[in-house]
Amino acid sequence: MRLVVVGDTLLDREVHGTVTRIAPDAPAPVLDEERVSERPGGAGLAALLAARRGIEVALVTALAPDAAGARLSELLTAAGIRVYALPLPGGTPEKIRLRAAGQVLLRLDRGGPPRPPGDVPAAALDVLRDAGAILVSDYGRGVARHPALRAAVEESKAPVVWDPHPNGPPPVPNCRLVTPNEAEARRLSGDAGDGSGLATAQRAGHALRQRWQAAAVVVTRGAAGAVLCQGGPTPLVVPVPAASSGDTCGAGDAFAVAAAVALAEGALVSEAVGAAVAAASDYVAGDPEMSGKAAHEGRIGAAEAGRLAAEVRTRGGTVVATGGCFDLLHTGHLATLRAARALGDCLIVCLNSDSSVRGLKGDNRPLTGQEDRGCLLAALDCVDAVVVFDEPTPEPVLAWLRPDVWVKGGDYDTLPETEIVQRWGGQTVIVPYLDGRSTTRTIAEARRR
């Protein structure tokens, strides 16, 4: 599958340094430069994020014959992106941010006012005709307004995702998805913003969908998730997997890329928006290459469990662990997990793999696969990490995890793990189990009905 990104590309340059004094000739901080980083911005960043997913990417953009344009060509080509450049009069746009201690002190823009790009190369029109999906990443500098490109995008049979800009043209008709953020949606629709943010997003999204003749409009709302407006009057609200306080610059590009890729792979629009919200959240959290994994999935695995246990011990805390199959998670499980978490500073769940459950309970179990069981457990606020094991018992995991407390819920006189836990001075604990709650009983009751 080839994704074709269309739009304005600019050069993002970050100048990092330290401020220790004020200039003697003006009330301004003096930045001592330490390092400089450069990356493509605008549609170039969208293409870069797509290439990191391992898919074939072509970028149709406009570049001037200057140093910034040459540097962008170098960066994009090195990332494996095929660049189809329209001639750009004037200078290639640049955004230069001066940073100290992670904070932006000043942004300097170069390139002058937008100027219409020149003729579209025939090869660019050919690549649009053969696209598996098209993402128009409009930054309001003229590429998305080019008549030949607009005609080619409109004629394409591939799904089109359009990321609009207030200074740019309207999307072509029949886009599969248009992705304004909340501020853009208000400005583009003329909505005064009366009522809640959700109500505003809903009104603006429906108004823009009808105006643009789009199949769907999704209004992105940062930490509040996204509001998807389709044919019906009731929107779909997609929350973020986990809030993050990271840098949001580029999150809109991550969102649009994930949506376009998902649509190209056959996803429903609602599924594509869910994947896009997760991808944007990961990007803001500082991991743009997670490809849309939910945040809690990062808490699953032996490496994460070991890292967490070491960190807690370094702080002088208590590591608590419990284990089980957790097939058809129910309130009895939840009571045990909450009681276990209250005994220390973290709770690590040792989860029987699918093969381990089959060996213990028969070929018709588990009903829920280990990936889903792990995700459900990791999503609970009382669980800090999950590690999956294939053996009949958790003892091999306990041998390297070495928890301070091993917990089981139920009516036990003793626990078989006591001997191994005592080797490093740990203790085993039994907590009450809610009467009448069990997976086996739930399955039997369901079969009777």
Automatic annotation (TrEMBL):
GO terms for biological process: lipopolysaccharide core region biosynthetic process. GO terms for cellular component: cytosol. The keyword Kinase applies. Pathway: Bacterial outer membrane biogenesis; LPS core biosynthesis. Keywords: Carbohydrate metabolism, Kinase, Multifunctional enzyme, Transferase. One of its GO terms (molecular function) is heptose 7-phosphate kinase activity. PANTHER family: BIFUNCTIONAL PROTEIN HLDE. This is RfaE bifunctional protein nucleotidyltransferase chain/domain/rfaE bifunctional protein kinase chain/domain.
